[in-house]
Amino acid sequence: MPVVLPPSAGYLGKSRRRISASGLVTWERCPRQWHYRRRIGLNDATNPEMIIGLVVEDALCGLFIQRFPENGTAMPGLAEWVNFSRQENGLGKISPNGEVIISDLESISQWMELVIPSLVGEVQRLLQARWDATQWKAAGRDIKEVKDERIENLIRGGIKLQLEEVENCFNAGGGPHLKSYRNAGDPFTVPAPCWDEAPVNPGEDSNRTAVDGFEKSGDVTIWEAWEIARPWVKDPRIAAPQRLFHPDGWAAGEMDLVHRWDGTVRICDIKASAGTSGYSAGLANQLRFYQWLWGITRTHSGRPSKGESGGELSGLEGWYLNGPHRKIIDLLDDENLESESARWKNIHGQMTLSGLHPTHL
């Protein structure tokens, strides 16, 4: 979630000089691997798995910033992200696949069924484009081995997990922020992006207004539950880094989802896998690094001044799309968090002092 713009000059202005969650995970797995990848930019040969997660994550983030029409108006069967992505590459728009009137959770599921084929098609188009642009490909691998069924399974996994949030929000009567949403729209300091509203750049105050579709009183509607449960995600329309930056500039982290509808904050990370490989062991350190950055940036002077904070950080979750399932990571207590932050600072020092030869580690 963006807090302030990154340092623009000096050695900390260079991303390779800041410690990130992914860099930390790589370092703790193998400092030599970190050296080759992060210090001198020598990556491994690219295989399809290295890009599938990135593109599927973009598709889901684009889907989650969708707003439905109100008052019984039919919703076209196309996610706006699809045509946005196509136009970014100079391609023409495609037409919706039918339409659905959003009236309950089942109708939202029906709309998702309409949009999944075009989401899969756009993900596949982007995968092919990225694969074609890759110069060093893993021997014997090809992006064409990634079948539509595999991408569809991952997208369905993300949809299922988000619809669980919507259902929980609906069953909770809209949560503690329902009145704020009804009065003036998204109440948070950094609002959840939405295709129907102008993007909010890091450090900017949003000009939020009341949104048509919210009731003035009475029980929460499914329209409201969807809108309230939409998480903060990276806005695809913003080119600037949408990260948390340490006030001193030496650390940064880019989160996937931040849920705030229940009066607390949960940081979630999307994984396009089942979480059964050895690489999944790094999830706890990644999310706890985000926990630390979240806490240390809450009082930063560069934060936008309007709106609510979202509440206390209550949870860390890995969203594994192949399943799907949530892996819950326990928060560190204050003492262990302080100890870990000192260790991360020491690791950053080691990273900074490393030379261009692996013997310098």
Parts with pLDDT < 50 across at least 5 consecutive residues:
9-13
Determine the fraction of residues in helical runs and give it as a percent range: 40-55%
Q: On the 0-100 scale, what is the average pLDDT?
A: 90
- Main sheet strand line-up: 3-6-7-8-9
The count of strands amounts to 9
Query: Into which percentage range does the β-strand content fall?
Result: 5-15%
Question: Structural class of the secondary structure composition?
Answer: alpha+beta
**How far is the N terminus from the C terminus?**
32 Å
Please tell me how large the radius of gyration is: 21 Å
Shape: globular
* SS element count, helices: 10
Largest sheet: 5 strands, mixed
Order of helices and strands: HHHEHEHHHHEEEEEHEEH
What does this structure look like?
This protein is of the alpha+beta class and 361 residues long. 40% of the residues lie in helices and 10% in strands. It is built from 10 helices and 9 strands. Helix 9 (283-296) links the parallel strand 7 and strand 8 (313-320). The radius of gyration is 21 Å and the shape is globular. The two termini are 32 Å apart. Residues 9-13 have low confidence and may be disordered.
